[in-house]
Specification:
The complex is a heterodimer of chains A (465) and B (447). Chain A is an alpha+beta fold. Chain A has two domains: 2-246, Metalloenzyme, LuxS/M16 peptidase-like (Cytochrome Bc1 Complex, Chain A, domain 1, 2-Layer Sandwich); 269-461, 2-Layer Sandwich (Cytochrome Bc1 Complex, Chain A, domain 1), CATH 3.30.830. Chain A is built from 15 helices and twelve strands. Chain B folds into two domains: 29-227, 2-Layer Sandwich (Cytochrome Bc1 Complex, Chain A, domain 1), CATH 3.30.830; 250-440, Metalloenzyme, LuxS/M16 peptidase-like (Cytochrome Bc1 Complex, Chain A, domain 1, 2-Layer Sandwich). Chain B contains 16 helices and twelve strands. At the A-B interface, helix 2, strand 6, helix 3, helix 4 and helix 12 of A face helix 1, helix 3, strand 5, helix 5 and helix 11 of B.
Chain lengths: 465, 447
């Protein structure tokens, strides 16, 4: 996921891996996780024009958060149009509509105290705005204006291209972001998910206004979009506002997307890139369950056990006794419509890189042999066994509760869910997590991590001249 | 509402800037235990989680000369889990612990399910009250801090920030990374750690800040049971921070990167409630998002993807940095454009409309930034450590509203005065003759 505007509140931009909280995407029923939101505080409906809408009251902070998801992502690009969705997303956010120039939009955003941003992902593009509660009308009208009344001109497009090229250079200076981008390109080679989110400099430079207009007309129509509003409002008032603002927008749905599920890579990749850095940065990627897979819950739990929290298993495996191969580790599981990816991010001494790669992959392959729960161990030894499974479930429960505190994050996840979810959710997220057994973890570990074809990308210090 | 007329009408009525129906308004309470320990309690039923920040006053400013990194090192060791049994207990509880180093304090930030708070505190307080400062443990944490220090320098934005802190606050605790540097870490001995712990980890010098769905009396009782053994001691006495004497007006750091980091940094005066609000307004007007002063460097001049303004506020001073990251080949152009922009801002000040918008945006940003418990606890604790009092959390919105245009413009004149400015540029070595300025590569030289 690529941010259009570098996030500026909080200490650090949110890492791409954390932009969408997988804990919220599995079921509308997540709200039963805590007292902040209840079923009475939520409403789902579809406008006559096909726009899916989800409203959720969250009244503890006087903010209204609006997120729109459009079923258009880098998956919809060709080599010739590589980067076009991200460029269009930039244009929509900053370059003006039929009624307002980019400067006027900026001025309005400022006056309203709004946070205004957008993201491009493999499956979807997101457009989000957060305002003080009194600015809810503005937020809705603004989103309608940018999503459905855009005006694309060649002059403005040329301006925005330069900024996107700066973003590309920034990516090339960021060890983890660049490594993750290369990991995706290799993990999904031959599938549209391999398309780089920002695109390639040459294709960006050559992009024409006609290409963007064509994309815009085809995909920015109500039946191809979903709108989630979370915040300090009453459901009745907000439903009336949404119907009034978005009800008259018209457009035909594009043909439904038709992509095959991504296949695992047919060969391993081990890529080393030099940068002016003092430490080594390592990303290890493997395939994982897709957005609608019933295996996603087990993969969530497994990722938690292996690579998050206090002393995750992979970290412990790499730092046994006096041997210390890595300094920091985190893992992320990202699920998409047609595939998923699990990624480990490690920092380490450059001299340990070879051993760390070898040991990490060896350990991940053997994960299917682990005992994750005392129930896996017979006899008295059970008393001394550690309950990784129970611990990870606690972690995920904490994540789910914590996610409910952030209105904008919830709105984005809900908008994503409305488009990507297929069929009815069988159960609520935490209930599904609770049902995961140790055997399920070994099952997904065997299926997804027990394979040989890992993609490894290392960023290493430039060699001394 | 449809088309231009509808939206314009809406915006006109909203010229009428968005009203703030109220602040976050969770209403924290302050209590003091018998051993002098201060406890802040905020009831927040929004989720079944508890955040606890244990804030130890002093931070980098309490470190003896030449011992940079000592505050962070000691704080980290105070919750370093001594054996695998205790580690497993905490893992099972899904309790998260992180250490935060700051100018005037260091903190242990704890997040857990509320149902697991009591067992978590049972384990953690036992370690905290009787930590083990063995040479092996000290060395292991030092190694990690050095690693993190170098990782910090692999990011030009962080490196630029550290360079500015070092330039403005040399000789005071504020002047560097919480990780210290190679020389200072080498000089820290086990005795330094235990002395620092004895002097600063005392009841009268520690604040516990909770946000939780649990009842206040439960939290207070738990705090008492967990930390009653902490000696009362005396609040740490901190040295004053000397006035800046910038040795250089320009710092250049060489990194072979695609982009160059170009920054204009200015020192801020000691923090007061009014200064905090004024600095927040200035930061918002200068570089927070669309419509800020820096925004045209991106939107019109196409110099950058990332333009930003960073604010660091500590008790005895702070830093405001306006920066952009640009194609390395146009670093000089960006430097000139940023210089011209800052001069123009200094000369012309803010307009009435700009001030109104900046105030609205600053207030809304504060609401968003403190929406979740974790950030709110950090902010409450920060306000206490800055000497502003936790009540400032609820007063900040009206404090932002208070200053008029003349006061804000006088503040801009004072802060952005050329004699207070430092330029920091990080990027590849220029092709031509080297520009003036200090040339450095790393604060972590190869041994």
């Amino acid at each position: 996921m690529v941010n259009c505007l570098k996030r500026q509140f909080g200490k650090k931009p949110i890492p791409a891996a954390a932009l969408l909280l997988p804990i919220l995407v599995s079921a509308f029923g997540f709200w039963l996780a805590g007292p902040l939101v209840s079923e009475e505080a939520a409403r789902f409906f579809v406008l006559d024009n096909g726009l899916k809408v989800f409203l959720l009251e969250k009244r503890n902070v006087p903010l209204v958060n609006v997120a729109a998801a459009v079923n258009l992502g880098s998956k919809d690009e060709t080599p010739e149009t590589s980067g076009s969705v991200h460029l269009l997303e930039h244009y929509i956010l900053f370059r003006g509509t039929e009624t307002r120039s980019g400067d006027e939009i900026s001025r309005d955003i400022r006056r309203q105290g709004a946070y205004f941003n957008a993201h491009t992902g493999q499956d979807l593009a997101f457009f989000e705005i957060s305002v003080p509660a009194a600015g809810a009308d503005f937020a809705l009208s603004n989103q309608k204006d940018i999503l459905f009344h855009l005006k694309i001109t060649r002059e403005e497009l040329e301006m925005e291209k330069e900024i996107v090229l700066e973003e590309f250079r920034q990516l090339e200076d960021d060890p983890f972001k660049y490594a993750a981008s290369l990991a995706y390109q290799n993990l999904f080679r031959g599938h549209p998910y391999a398309n780089p989110l920002i695109g390639e400099p040459e294709s960006i430079k050559n992009m024409t206004a006609d290409t963007l207009i064509s994309l815009y007309r085809r995909y920015f129509v109500p039946p191809n979009c979903a709108l989630a509003v979370v915040g300090d409002f009453s459901l009745q008032d907000m439903e009336a506002k949404v119907r009034r603002v978005f009800g008259e927008v018209r457009g035909e749905a594009p043909p439904p997307p038709d992509f095959a599920p991504a296949k695992p890579p047919d060969k391993a990749a081990d890529i080393e890139i030099e940068m002016d850095v003092q430490k080594a940065y390592l990303v290890i990627a493997a395939p994982a369950p897709d957005f609608n897979s019933p295996e996603q819950y087990a993969m969530d739990v497994l990722t938690e056990i292996l690579g998050r929290g206090v002393h995750p298993l992979l970290y412990s495996a790499l730092n046994q006794g006096p041997r210390r191969l890595v300094e920091t580790l985190r893992m992320a599981y990202q699920s998409h419509r047609y595939a998923g990816a699990v990624l480990a991010f490690l920092t380490l001494e450059p001299k340990n890189l070879g051993a760390a790669k070898r040991e990490a992959v060896n350990y991940l392959r053997r994960t299917r042999e682990e005992n994750f729960s005392p129930q896996d161990i017979p006899g008295e030894a059970q008393m001394f066994a550690f309950d990784h499974l129970g611990s990870a479930k606690n972690e995920l429960k904490y994540n789910a509760y914590q996610a409910q505190e952030r209105g904008l994050g919830m709105a984005i996840s809900l908008a994503q869910f409305m488009i990507l979810r297929e069929g009815q959710a069988e159960s609520r997220y935490l209930e599904s997590i609770d049902r995961v057994k140790s055997g399920d973890l070994r099952g997904v570990a065997g299926k997804y991590l027990g394979r040989v074809d890992y993609v490894i990308v290392s960023i290493i210090p430039k060699k001394a001249k | 509402m449809n088309g231009k007329n509808g939206l314009t009408a809406l915006l006109l009525t909203g010229l009428l800037l968005p009203a703030f129906a109220g602040g976050p308004g969770f209403g924290a309470q302050k209590k003091t235990l018998e051993n002098g320990l201060t406890v802040l309690l905020e009831k927040d039923p929004s989720s079944a989680t508890t955040i606890l920040q244990i804030l130890v006053k002093g931070g980098m400013r309490a470190e003896p000369a030449g011992r940079a990194g000592l505050a962070f090192l000691t704080t980290r060791l105070a919750v370093e889990i001594p054996d695998s049994g205790k580690a497993q207990e905490l893992i099972a509880l899904a309790t998260r612990i992180s250490i935060i180093g700051q100018g005037d304090s260091s903190s242990i930030h704890i997040e857990c399910l509320s149902s697991n708070l009591e067992p978590s505190l049972k384990v953690l307080s036992k370690i905290f009250l009787d930590p083990l400062f063995s040479g092996l443990r000290v060395d292991a944490v030092k190694r990690h801090m050095e690693h993190q220090g170098r990782v910090e320098e692999d990011d030009s934005v962080e490196l630029g920030h550290l360079a500015a802190l070092r330039a403005f606050f040399a000789g005071s605790g504020y002047g560097g990374s919480t990780n210290g540097d190679k020389a200072s870490l080498d000089s820290i001995k086990g005795r330094d750690v235990s002395d620092f712990y004895k002097n600063t980890f005392v009841g009268s010098n520690i604040l516990l800040c909770f946000a939780s769905d649990l009842p206040e009396e439960t939290l207070l009782s738990l705090a008492g049971r967990s930390f009653a053994r902490l000696p009362s001691g005396n609040p740490v006495v901190l040295k004053p921070v000397p006035a800046s004497e910038l040795k250089e007006k320009s710092i250049r750091l060489e990194r072979d990167t695609k982009q160059a980091f170009v920054s204009a940094a200015y020192r801020l005066p000691a923090t007061s409630r009014r200064n905090f609000a004024l600095a927040t307004i200035l930061q918002t007007a200068l570089g927070k998002g669309q419509g800020s002063r820096l925004w045209p460097l991106r939107a019109e001049k196409k110099l950058a993807y990332n333009v930003n303004c960073r604010l660091t506020q500590w008790q005895e001073g702070g830093l405001i940095e306006a920066y952009l990251e640009t194609d390395a080949a146009q670093a000089d152009m960006a430097r000139e454009a940023l210089g011209a922009l800052m001069s123009g801002f200094l000369d012309g000040g803010m307009t009435e409309e700009e001030l109104l918008s900046a105030k609205t945006a600053a207030k809304a940003d504060f609401l968003r930034d403190t929406e979740a418990k974790s950030r709110r606890v950090s902010t409450l604790a920060l306000f206490e450590s800055l000497g502003l009092g936790f009540e400032f959390f609820d007063a900040l919105l009206s404090e932002i509203d208070a200053p008029g245009l003349d006061e804000v413009n006088a503040y801009i004149e004072e802060i952005l005065a050329p004699e207070n400015a430092l330029e920091v540029i990080i990027g590849p070595k220029p092709a031509g003759p080297r520009s003036e300025g200090v040339i450095l590569r790393s604060f972590w030289p190869v041994p």
